Amino acid sequence: MRRSLLSLGGVLLLGLAGFFGARYLSVPEEVPRIGPALACHLSDGPCRHALPDGAVLTLTLTPRPVPLMQPVRVVVTIDRGDWRPLAGDITGLNMTMAPNRVRLKPAAPGRWEGETILPVCSQRQMHWQFALRLEGGGRSWRILDDFHTRR
């Protein structure tokens, strides 16, 4: 009886250690953010960001004004360096919306393009955030820019 209680206690202890260990290891690493473009709003025009090595990244959404339920073209250009955009995620800021991921494909050296369609929502003016994930200098980075749409 005592042996089975010890075995059960050992199994429970191992289970708890495994649970908390997996939880600790699954905490996502904080991805450094490259500062916001000064006085830039993607609804008005391209946003430019200085990258850590001095390269300049430009993010553009077209057409403008950014439409709903029509294709929106996303263009990322990087003037030099060893940078690679991975994807863009569009998130609703004033209302929760379904995930919207933009896959960026190489179009030319230093240029990546993608396309998405933004949904219509009940808000007359919708505020969005475009989060661009990119790699460079052996690390992952993110850039955040805002824009809005009107229905």
Task: Characterise this structure.
The chain has 2 domains: 1-30; 33-150, Immunoglobulin-like. It is 16% helix and 46% strand. It is built from 1 helix and 10 strands. The strands form 2 sheets. A 5-stranded mixed β-sheet has the order 1-10-9-5-6, with no helix packed on it. A hairpin with a 5-residue loop joins strand 2 and strand 3 (56-62). The longest helix has 24 residues, at 2-25.
Q: How are helices and strands ordered from N to C? A: HEEEEEEEEEE
Radius of gyration using CA atoms only: 22 Å
Q: Shape from CA axes?
A: globular
- CATH-defined fold name of the largest domain: Immunoglobulin-like
Our estimate of the beta-strand percent is over 45%
CATH architecture descriptor name of the largest domain: Sandwich
- What structural class do you assign from the helix and strand content? alpha+beta
Q: Any low-confidence stretches, pLDDT <50, length ≥5?
A: 20-28
Query: Count of DSSP E strands?
Result: 10
Q: Number of folding domains? A: 2
> In order across it, which strands form the biggest sheet?
1-10-9-5-6
CATH class of the largest domain: Mainly Beta
Mean pLDDT comes to 85
Largest sheet: 5 strands, mixed
The percentage helix is 10-25%
How many separate helices? 1
In CATH, what is the homologous superfamily of the largest domain? Domain of unknown function DUF4426
N-to-C terminal Cα separation, in Å?
Answer: 71 Å
